[in-house]
Design goal:
alpha/beta, Transcription Regulator spoIIAA, 4 helices, 5 strands
Length: 122
Amino acid sequence: MGDETGSLRENPVQEVVEQDGALIVRLAGELDLYNAEVVRGALGEAAVRAPERLVVDLGEVSFLDSTALGVLIEARGKLENRSGFLLAAPGLEARRALEVSGLDRHFELHETVDGALSARLA
């Protein structure tokens, strides 16, 4: 990997942790066409584990493009109970991307990871 490519970009998937039967996928940085496959892979692996809830922590995400938004939609579709797919802690830029795309009305958004973990599922 050359210095001009990935070395300056952080891994978009910071960690995947299990907590009280839920899986939390912590994402960070810019989520776009260039790292969408990494995010898709992590969310797909998490969905295959069939958690009661899958919380995507967007607290450290600084940018989401349309490709990344599509990855979120795709990942939610892989869960048997789609209401168990929750987005947490979106910062200003992530929230703006969700609002501009209209996806804020289709995803369960929570201000904090703890809020997503304790939310009632439909």
